[in-house]
Amino acid sequence: MRSEFLFTSESVSEGHPDKVSDQISDAVVDLMLSKDPEARVACETMTTTQRVILSGEIRCKPMYDPSREDWRENGGWAPGAKEEIEQAARRTVREIGYEQDGFHWETLSFENHLHGQSAHIAQGVDAGTEGSNKDEGAGDQGIMFGYASDETPDLMPATLDYSHKILERMAADRKSGAAPFLEPDAKSQVTLRYKDERPAEAMVIVVSTQHAPGYFFHGGEGDAAKYAELRGYVKGVIADVLPAELLTENTVYHINPTGRFEIGGPDGDAGLTGRKIIVDTYGGAAPHGGGAFSGKDPTKVDRSAAYIARYLAKNVVAAGLARRCTIQLSYAIGVAEPLSIYVDLHGTGNGVSEDQLEQVLPELVSLTPRGIRTHLGLNKPIYRETAAYGHFGRTPEGDYFPWERTDLADKLKAALG
Predict the structure, then answer these.
(1) Does residue 57 carry a catalytic annotation?
(2) Is 185 tagged catalytic?
(3) What is this structure's pTM?
């Protein structure tokens, strides 16, 4: 292990075009799960200047059923169902805060190209392929990772945790009116110096935020005082979010370093669902299986298995069994049980081995797709909230973010004796 190194993670705000797409896709997932807890959804969204386009595959009989004679004239859609989806998309854009000429929730063009799920995929998920007591199979093959670290109270990598929290605070201030010069699109990036694997100093902090007209200064043009006001505000947010001992005379700030950022969001750059998977997970501090989460119902192991892997890793660390933990799961389409489970404690184990955990964890929690959904209560409309500021390191409240609970820690310690 290196005694000293620099590490960097980035985050993007809810107004970033890719995150707008993620939130719309998850709003569709929530809508369909509210109609049918067993709905199947794979919704992809593209956003660009004054346009939102949906595509993908669904199965949700209260909303879409091509076999119904009375719905065939409407392409298999229930009366009002397509309008409900459009309303969910527009409402999402409005709640993010886009009322700009280049992207406005009320006047943007909307297209819905969702259609029925493949019957061949459905048969593998619904019935599975192995054993006399066939269980629901995984919807696809793949690998999923979960990670936890004791660097922060949220058991997340500090670089990502602080990057998220800077943007969350700015969005809250924008919406409350405390920072009226902010617009929805923003990015943050935090570089920390680690010493003996602990955050020791903030070296570089980057924040680029879309802003109201006039809050720029570039090439001698603009309003230097307003630009200074914006920069001073952002530095204040950083000082509130990061522990004071990490901010030193060595800390370098890059705040709107280009000097001007008025055109943003989908008007400035096209957005797609699933393009911010490192922001969504661990900021590069852990491996990623490659599958995106947003737009997918919880039968998709890309999503649900990544959630249970985080849950297991977090409980290992919360139980004091290690300071860091990575867990990998793998699946095959149509097969219920995971093909493998791998645990890495990164040399930080406390009286427990990876082999022991690989044996005990599947005994405490069923890792089949249905077992995961049952244990975490995932068949609920809880996903729009996940689609900005990270799926992990969030506060579990009610039905939301159940994979962040640490209710397995005591059971885990007891099982290991």
Answers:
(1) yes
(2) no
(3) 0.95
User: Is 44 marked active-site?
Assistant: yes
Comparing CA positions, the residue from 368, 338, 350, 370 lying closest to residue 413 is 350
The CA-atom distances, in angstroms, between 405 and each of 286, 327, 336 are 20, 17, 24
Tokens read off for 327: 């867990």
Asked whether the beta carbons of 20 and 274 are under 8 A apart, the reply is no
Residue range 373-377: mean pLDDT, rounded: 97
Active site includes 19?
yes
**Are 346 and 324 in contact, with CB atoms under 8 Å apart?**
yes
Active-site residue among 59, 296, 314, 384? 296
Tokens representing residue 188 in the block: 């943050």
Q: Which runs of E-coded beta strand occur in 127-281?
A: 142-149, 182-195, 198-211, 217-218, 221-222, 252-255, 271-272
Q: Could you report how far apart the first and last alpha carbons of the chain are, in Å?
A: 29
| Residues 314-348 pLDDT 10s | 999 999 999 999 999 999 988 999 999 999 999 99
